[in-house]
Design brief:
Blueprint lengths: L1 E5 L8 H14 L4 E6 L4 H6 L7 H5 L5 H4 L1 E4 L2 E4 L5 H10 L7 H6 L8 E6 L5 H9 L2 E7 L4 H16 L6 E8 L6 H14 L11 H8 L4 H4 L4 H15 L11
Helix pairs in contact: 1-12
The structure holds adenosine-5'-triphosphate and magnesium ion.
Length: 256
Amino acid sequence: MRIIAIAMTKGGVGKTTTAVNLSHGLALRGQRVLLVDADTQGQCAKALGVDKDVTLNEVLLGEATVLEAVTKARQNLDLLASDHRLTRAALAIARRERDGHLALAEALAPVAERYDTVVIDAAPGVDAVAVNVLGCADEVIAPVALTPAALAGVLDFVRHVERVARHNTRLDLRWILPTFHDQRTRTSAETLRQLQEHFGAKVCRSIRVNIELAEAFGWRQSIFEHAPRSRGAADYEAFIGTVAEADARRPELVGA
Ligand SMILES: Nc1ncnc2c1ncn2[C@@H]1O[C@H](COP(=O)(O)OP(=O)(O)OP(=O)(O)O)[C@@H](O)[C@H]1O
Ligand SMILES: [Mg+2]
């Protein structure tokens, strides 16, 4: 089981959009995928039109097993949903005296054989759940909106990943995914150039601004269902190809 975290401390950069479309894209390629929503906003269930009473909160608190909490969202794609109740688990984890950063890893262990890939949609910020997401991941995909001053935010995030990597030595900041690429603006081109200068081959081909990616959410569909011939679908399909083809072998150290 390969665990991929979609994480970035800054909000609104395309984490959930990436998590939902990556999960469904991998499922369409025949992988058995579990999408874990680790955000109190509960956007993953909304994005896929799934209703679920038992959530990650209950799993983290030991009140339900992960098998009781997952629900089928699409063929090959299960969802472990979240909602505002996750705040309760976050507080309990923060109070744990030992191995607080491993609560999510422990919660997911029983389903290790059931899925090829687990994709975790992290919340913005650096709370106890966000640390748990990095605490259990093998790979991190960091979406970065191509806006002015984006680089400073990414460098902050890299330091955060490096701190968690002291406890989780498998953790690899594998890809920087530029999002909201607007080919008409110089800001997008300049920010992309800065990212490439700093992160080289970790920087994937970007996801362009595409209104259909936002509209798909309103229709409770992935981009492959809502608008399979859109630019958004083409960009995510190319990205999913990169993720699917890469083996999960841990390469160089984070930030090295
Ligand atoms: N490439 C894109 N083009 C146009 N709109 C997009 C694109 N990617 C995401 N969006 C829209 O931008 C908004 C923010 O995206 P998303 O929710 O994926 O970000 P996020 O990083 O998960 O946010 P948060 O930090 O609040 O969890 C959403 O309305 C989404 O539909
Ligand atoms: Mg989100």
